[in-house]
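Hi support team,

I'm opening this ticket because the web form for multi-chain structure prediction keeps timing out on my end. I have pasted the exact lines I submitted so you can reproduce it. The total is 932 residues across three entries, so I didn't expect it to be a heavy job. Is there a limit I'm missing, or should I split the entries? Thanks in advance, R.K.
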Amino acid sequence: MTSEAGTTPDGIPRRRVASPRTPWPIAVPAGLAVAFLLVPLAGMLIRAPWGQLSRILAETQAVEALRLSLICATCATVISLILGVPLAWVLARSRARGTRYLRALVTLPLVLPPVVGGVALLLAYGRVGIVGSHLDRWFGLTLPFTTVAVVIAETFVAMPFLIVSVEGALRSGDRGLEEAAATLGSRAFATFRRVTLPQVLPSIAAGSVLCWARALGEFGATITFAGNLPGVTQTMPGAVYRAFETDPPAAVALSLVLLTVSVTVLVLLRDRWLRPGADV
Amino acid sequence: MARCRLPLVALAAAWLALPLAACGSSPTSDAGGSPSASRSSSAPGSLRGEILVFAAASLTDAFTTLGKQFQEEHPGTTVTFNFAASSALATQITQGAPADVFASASTTTMDQVVAAKAADRATTFVRNQLQIAVPPANPARIARLADLAEPGVKVVLCQPEVPCGATAVKVFANAGLTVAPVSLEADVKSTLAKVTLGEADAALVYVTDVLAAQGAVTGIEIPAEVNASTSYPIAALSASRNPELAAAFVDHVLSTRGAAVLTAAGFAAP
Amino acid sequence: MRTDGRTDGTGRSEQGLAAQVSVVRGALTVRARLDVKPGEILAVLGPNGAGKTTLLRAFSGLLAIDAGTISVGTSVWDDPGRGIFVPPTERRVGVVFQDYRLFPHLSVVDNVAFAARSRGAPRRQAREHAAGVLERLGIASLAGYRPRRLSGGQAQRVALARALASDPALLLLDEPLAALDVRTRLEIRGELRRYLAAFHGPSVLVTHDPLEAMIIADRILVLEEGEVVQQGTPAEVARRPATDYVAHLVGLNLYRGTLADRTTRRIDLDDGSSLYAAGADPQDPAGGRLLPMVGTRMSVAVPPTAISLYTREPDAGSARNVWTGVVTQLELLADRVRVGVEGHPDALVDITPAALTALGLDVGRRVWLSAKATEVVAYPAA
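Hello R.K., no limit was hit. The queue was backed up. Here is the completed structure from your submission:
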């Protein structure tokens, strides 16, 4: 076989299998999509005030905002994992009648404008909110204008990304393995921990990255619920927005920093976790 | 609150509108080619078309009223507003947003626009002063400006880049106070909202905003010797596609009828 | 509300499975009554959709029955009438699933150690026990592998090891060989029979392959559309098919014997007679060229269509297997007549209705049978 790579055993020249050409009705819109997505990024790189970068970063408390952004997005992701994965399990497994509606409700923040989310959070956990007023009265705790509020806002907006991703994996996952575990004496929670969770680990990883990225870029809900104070509640998107009003080159510089950090993290995670068929 | 997203929307609108402007025919020629005819005193019906007015967030209520008035006086015209922080609007205008008129809450931001040759000259039409806004229940028992410097009092200010924030900085400097705000909001309306919602104990906002809140907040006067004011300049923009209508709207703001609306809203004469 | 299905290791070999179940699954109602003695292997044979797997799921506790009882020894596992249902986690069943269901993220040894870990054994102890089971099944070398790297046959062995390692009171196997290629199936079939025979508790095996059922099982239960149509030893089921389906299903004469001569391929059957088997096992990749040692236990299969009937002794022709017997049964099937002959050995012979008339056969008639050696297939018995 290998010695006759060019011909079949009958001596007929073997036609090479060429990759089929992409038809133009697909190629043209696809090309436009690439341009549409990449031109703004290119614009940012071209217009970046490269010469003043270090000055701007020093002046605009960029490091502080970036540190806050990374900490808050990571906290939001951890909370989303602790609460969201069990919820995804309930949504995927529960046969109760209201599950469908519950799923629609808890994933609402996916489609809700973040500012609306921020208002909703204020009405719930604000100082006079339905939950917040009790926190204030009983414990003297107020959430708005604190870093905790930033984490709450980011979690609210980003957790549905994790839930949706993990629930999908749980649904399409192999229930047979859970049955097998049951016949081997494994109780429900042990099965979840020892069989189900390892199966959906890649989806949890992918969902966490989505969740983290969403939290990192969160702006509307954060500025509405947590406010905007450098060092306490001002994350990178807030800093970019603020800079844009007075000093557009600074806004570009800050955006570049955020872009670089996000891309770096995503690439690193991709190598570790998100490779197709990665041995997790 | 929702206002802080508006500039982005406006930018997107500007981006989409630019190619349209390039291929649309100019609507200015049907007034007989005589620019002097386009005064607010001109006969009804001689003005038509649309203009987009970029105005400081603090002008929201007064200008909305003025816009309605203007449209009633000149049937066939449409005045659309984009209210946001003056500094944000100035940035958008210098980046090419398709605005016809700019009314700013500070001379500094207007100067940026004039320096960028986006407007020829600006006229100051009102001044505005700051007041302390507290929730009606006044949970922190704020009585005077110095109370804002007390620890534990949640004070919200406009960020110093916007006129109300810059004015607040002046007020505290005049009073020799150091205040640690819990948040620096993007514009005066979201600053006010934090008090309206009861999240903040106090905020420094314009007199006009307290008035416009209609009892949702209580205003506390700042002594005249430490208070600072900001001047509001207005200008028709050079890039306007309907300069006559733009000029007519500016005239209306400067007219006695316009001044009455502004005074009623709490603004002071320039 | 539930009784504990567990018993101590001692005396469990005395416990058989007793079940009388009724399970509704959509349009199908599966009704069966069966007893499997300790150490006995029951094959549930039937076409797809007959309710075989449903039965197995009911035994394992993955499905609750609607009426009846399931018990192993003195432990009642399911009795809706008395409100008893023991969940699968408490049943001590070993299940070999059709698709094996090995945990892909665990190594082979951890798969096999899973049951012990579930019952709270420390990791080391569970692994040692698992390693012992792997050793016993001759697959200790696979211990460190992930299931993804196993071949079909290896995965099947690991699945069996995992089920046996849970120290089950009842062993359930759902089409254990169906997922294997022909060559591996042949290899595993014999092995499976050996391991099941070594298991002290009752075993229930579900299959749609009659050959598999006959080779592995001690007793066969034929299930059709949820109903038990026949139950008996493989020989009984083969000799007296209760329905056309069973007859068609088991359309095969199966004998057990010992290889007596490698050259002539003579096999001495257990009833004292002999058959020459030169036929190639269709499932044997070596095409029958590699015969095992003399004295090896063999199975011999002769399709009923491969046997010719004569009313007087035939001339010595190419057929080396010629014997005589008495017609005990005539049954009209769809397109042929199945003739039951008692002799050494017994045989089922399929002939055309025309041949029946031409031969003038009737019950009690003495006949000669002949089968070409090339149509007689022998293979090592389990």
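A quick check on our side: Chain B touches chain A through 27 residues (CB under 8 Å). Let us know if the file doesn't open in your viewer.
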